[in-house]
TrEMBL record:
Lineage: Bacteria, Pseudomonadati, Acidobacteriota, Terriglobia, Terriglobales
Matching Gene3D superfamilies: 3.30.720.110, 3.30.720.120
Protein name, UniProt field: PhnB protein
Entries under CDD domains matching the protein: VOC_like (cd07246)
Superkingdom per UniProt: Bacteria
Length: 151
């Protein structure tokens, strides 16, 4: 019998797992804002989503509704989150504008960065920060460190 791979097919070794208040609405937002595809959704009898998965350009993001009985709360419960998601996109400006049109709030307008990316930041309606980045130039570690020391 062949050994089962330790990472299931279609996944990476690290998947973000978001706890949100309103997972169904979050899935619809991520579809509009980031072009996500819904992979799966498992609803509980009370209508809450126990587990769902979306895919954004080959990367899986898992999520579930808040579950106080499991001590799993969304950023809204805590008044914000220290977690952010970094998402490489083909067109930073376009992705930023789609996210805003879908209901995100701007936290950082698109701009070229010294480390070689054009980057923007948004806050989604569920309390998570997303940084949208398009790599536009290769920059060496030495160049980045020199720039950091100049500020």
């Amino acid at each position: 019998m062949a050994a089962v791979p330790f990472v299931p097919s279609g996944y990476h070794t690290v998947q973000p797992y978001l706890v949100v208040r309103g997972a169904g609405e979050a899935i619809e937002f991520y579809k509009k804002a980031f072009g996500a595809n819904e992979r799966m959704r498992m609803a509980q009898k009370d209508g809450r989503i126990a587990h769902a998965e979306i895919e954004i350009d080959g990367s899986v993001v898992m999520m579930a509704d808040e579950s106080p009985e499991m001590d799993a709360y969304s950023p809204k419960h805590y008044g914000g989150s220290s977690v952010s998601l970094m998402c490489y996109v083909e067109d930073c400006d376009g992705a930023y504008n789609r996210a805003l049109a879908a209901g995100a709030t701007s936290v950082r307008e698109p701009a070229d960065q010294f480390y070689g990316d054009r980057m923007a930041g948004v806050l989604d309606p569920f309390g998570y920060h997303w940084f949208l980045s398009t790599h536009v130039k290769d920059v060496s570690v030495e160049e980045m460190q020199a720039h950091m020391g100049a500020e």
